[in-house]
Amino acid sequence: MKRHKPIYLKMIGVILILLIPAILLYTYFSRASIQVINTQMTDYNDSQLMFLKNQIEANIERLSLSSSVLVQDSSILNLQLSILTKDYYRMLDFQTHVKEKLNLQSLSSNWSNHLSVYLPTIQTRVSTDLSESYDQKILDEASNGKWRFHPGDSRSTAYYQLFLWDPFLSKFDSQSINAIFEIRFGLDNIRKMLQHYKLESPGFCFLLTADGRAFSNTDSNDEEHERFGADLLNQGLSGSGHKNVQFNGQKIFLSYAYLPELDAFLIDYVPTHMFHEPIIKSRNLFYYSMGLLILLGFAASYVLYLNVQKPVAMIMKGLKHFEMGNYSFRIDQRFNNEFDYMMQRFNDMGTRIQHLIQNVYEEQNRSRLATLKQLQSQINPHFLYNCLFFIAGCAKVGLTETIKDMAYHLGGYYRYITRVENQMPLLKEEVELVTHYLKIYSYRLERLEYQINIPQEMLNEPVMRLVVQPVVENAIVHGIEPKTGHGTVLITGYREVGWNILLIEDSGEGMTKQEIQESTLRLDQPMNNKTGCGLWNVHQRLMHRYGQDAGIIMKSSERLSGLCVMLRWKREQDSEGENV
To answer: Backbone phi, then psi, for 429, in 5-degree steps?
Structure first.
């Protein structure tokens, strides 16, 4: 006979089969997570950097437009007019006004800046910065309408400068020059924006000028960033983008955006380990844990083999000899397949359990049927007493016709509810019961009116016994009786695809949406003191027979002032075997 492999070897194989796919899946998910993080970091850095770029460009544009504002200013026009008329006294006065306007215009910007007006006709410079004077050489070297970077004496004094001629094309025609406007802002403005930009973001950010000068969010890193910026310029930067590069011996994720007005680049970089490190640590910890689990699984399998498998095998062989009557047998060998005998005994036990379960299930069905018949046979004694008292009262006053009708309907009512052999009557039988019930109540409650409108073909549909009368009783007791005046009960039936629908509406006070929701929830919960027995019993019986979509649905009545209760159950097959 072929020997079977020990269980501990099989368990080791199962452990490997379970753990190896888990390790491979985790590796895949880890790589996918890193890719997702890279994508998110790319999108985030690009959006943040473009926002910073737009802010810088907006401030630069506002400064550039200040010259257009000054050209239209009356003080500038009056000053130019006084120069033409050689009115030197008014010329000095208007220079003072121009200086005031320059100061106001300068202060209106978010950035600290200096504004100047050059007047070549009188070789004069009016400026918010008094440290410099009129210098024709500066004007000759300047470009019209183009920002130029000036390193200054130190990093703190580096600035960008813009000259604008008025008229714009008069730079090379000295006779037609009215004025020259100078706009200047220091790099400290951009440095402050970079500092604010990196307050809640990891990594570093700096401005790289076309000639390789760097201005970062921290002064101490400027020289280091200049060396890094020189390498980037040598590699070639154009427009906006991002890439992975090496910096100071570590991998970084770099994003950049070009500022055409300043001929400079905004550089933002984050070391990749700052957002990859947690995932890498988690991945390594998972690998170490999986390795340890594999070793522990091997050890546990071997211990299980020594302490469980061998004793069980010996006991099983001994039990088999005992079954055959060999009580002198002593355990000294093992079975080849130690679970064969246990399987046989398990099957025998399963057969017995199945037999017991089948008996219990049949007993439960009988008990459920008895309970259902008990519920159907429960008669409200107060209803019978009230009917008998009503008959007695009519007898006293000699209303024989009323007594005859009352007795007829009362007999029909109790004849139906006490007949329990047919559990699936036709709907018309249920409607006849309801008619008896309503007729009896109309004698006792003279203000009660009712209408029944059900299609003839629907009346021939089978339905569970005693599912309509409890709903009608609920409409009268809780809807009609508490309200004064005439009351109306409408019973309407119609068909949908595969379903029968019966609506019972009353003209009572009705219920709020909150009350309807609470009552609907109680229908699906175990019955308690707050749950009405009639509606709950009907809903549970319909739902258990026809499925979750069957049962009771409550809503406000659209035709009357009270509540509308909808009974919904599946259509049965007709007499010819087809679905109706």
So the answer is: -70, -40
